[in-house]
Amino acid sequence: MKNLLSAIIFSLVFYSCQRPESPSCVPYFGQFREASVAQIHPEGWFRELLEIQRDGLGSHRVASGYPYNTCLWEGVIPKGGNPIAQDWWPYEQSGYMVDGLYRCGILLGDSSLMGLGRRNVAYVLAHPRENGMLGPEALGELQWAFSVFARAMLADYDLTGDTGVLEGLRRHFDNLPDSLTNRQACILESMCRVYAQTGDRSLLDHAERIWRTFSMPGTSDNEAFRHDDMVAARPVEVHGVTAAEVSKLPAILYLYTGNREYLDAALGFYASVERDHELVDGIPASYEKLLGKRPEALHETCDVSDFLWSYGYLLMATGDVRWADKMENAFYNAALGSISKDFRSHQYFSSPNQIVATQYSSMADYGEEGLSRQAYRPGFDTECCSGNVHRMFPNFASRMWMRSGDDGIVAALYAPGRFETRVSGRDLRVVERTEYPFRDEIAFEFVCDGSVRCPFTFRVPSWTENAEYCINDGEPVPVSAGKYHTIERTFRSGDRIVVRLPMRPRVEVTAENGVSVRRGPLLFSVDIAEDARPVTDQMKTSDEFPAWDIVPASAWNYALEKGVEIETVERPVGSQPWLPENAPVRLRLPAYRVPSWRMEGPSTPELPAPGFLTESHASLIEMIPSGMTRIRLTTLPLK
């Protein structure tokens, strides 16, 4: 039976790669559009990272506890988990898990993970309610949890081309009212996707009615998403996941309607969030609700995954490099920093500045168990992040490659891998060979049947200077930073485009009189030695999957001068480059100890107030990429 399942999965992968892409049957107004996740194949260190996710909590999800030790969406989830949980909680949480692991499996070509996703989707399609709606009766008319699972269904369609997925979703949408509020409105994401595949205009009309009913003045149960307030970028205080998920909806509507008012609402909302809440690693502070910009402020792991996904829609709508820069900032720094590098534990709350990560260090106090939400654990008292953490890497990978126009290919984000597609009826493979983000060179190699003419677009990030590219060892061509650059030519097998994006260390002044150090897309943190103690006697812990109490075993209380000279130290990029001991790049620089800046409680202290005193002589310190760390000082006080 196992061999038969493997054969079926192999045939699905082969079919998805060979299935010709038809031109969109509906008008599309975005600058870029999504590629199928089945066409994207991470390689090198990125594939290794996905394999570590699979072999860690991915294949051992029961270690995260309820509801990950149940049938997920392949049946009715029994009660008996979290005593305060509402009926929809376990379906939201397991929906995150299924979507993340299914996409991870597709990206790896892993039959076990793809089988998990396929079984869950098949069960839901085979067990509709009497009126055609999908999902268990326990959800009632609530749409949020099903909105999460619908993404897994659309990944299934990407893989298999099974039109039964589209038909099942369409019947579900037929039963929806126009009055959906807050996260319930997120179902229109999948409504628009199904419209794009089927051309059924009634779906788009229905999605627009839902959004307009929800966002009009006077609508009850609308926390922060009234149209005029969004356009004006008025301050918002709202649940972080709700902010990430709902604010993308007008951008999605813009993609299919061209109505600029929708895009203005999304852009205005994100401008407000960036201005008032965004931390240096690209994710807003959110201890459940959005909350300020202090360097030690926390953000929920769910928000890392969800903002990363939503930024992708803004990139598709606008073609603006800054959204891709944000996505790389969030992925390479916030996402990687919120997990242990064996993917056997993760944080519920993480921060750019976290000098401690223990069972008592969380400043977002939800009672005794809530204090542990900054620790690295296999599971938590509230379960959502243990599912959503599995979507972070696949969310990034799913947006690495995009399409433009009918035939254009867009290298939107950078990491090693390949993209396989069809252009004008011909197979085309683009192999991306790179050690980015540790090195500045990216080589694109083209493999095709005969010759293929198409536009090829690559990104020149905002942070680089003196960027250039060359074709087939030709003369270097300079390109401007902060733009996507398009080359239109007839490609033949063996053609090679090499892009060079110089990475110079830079110091940026941030909130609270602080400074942060970057090189390329990487944010750097003081290399702090860990005193790490495993915890195995608490809920959802074991000898194999412990929680961790981590405190500093070396000095951390440093300040920087703004004009500091920084030395870059490079080592070969080998296996598991995200382990601190394997860091392919380190920065050396002088810094000054601040004796009065000490730990005076269980949580990370604020930056010292201006006027603090330092030691008279500088110490030479090393900084490593923030995504490699578990405890870190990323924003330092400005001397």
Please give the count of helices: 16
The portion of residues forming beta strands comes to 15-25%
Q: Quick check: average pLDDT?
A: 94
Largest sheet, in brief, is: 8 strands, antiparallel
Estimated structural class: alpha+beta
Query: Uncertain regions: pLDDT < 50 for 5+ in a row?
Result: 1-23
Bulk shape: globular
Percent helix range: 25-40%
Distance separating the two termini = 66 Å
Rg (CA only) = 24 Å
What's the number of extended β-strand segments? 26
In summary, what is this structure?
The chain is of the alpha+beta class and 639 residues long. The chain is built from 16 helices and 26 strands. Residues 1-23 have low confidence and may be disordered.
Key traits:
about 650 residues, alpha+beta, 8-stranded antiparallel β-sheet, 16 helices
Walk me through what this model shows.
- The structure is a single chain.
- With 639 residues, the protein is an alpha+beta fold.
- It contains 16 helices and 26 strands.
- Strands 17, 18, 19, 22, 23, 24, 25 and 26 form an eight-stranded antiparallel β-sheet that branches.
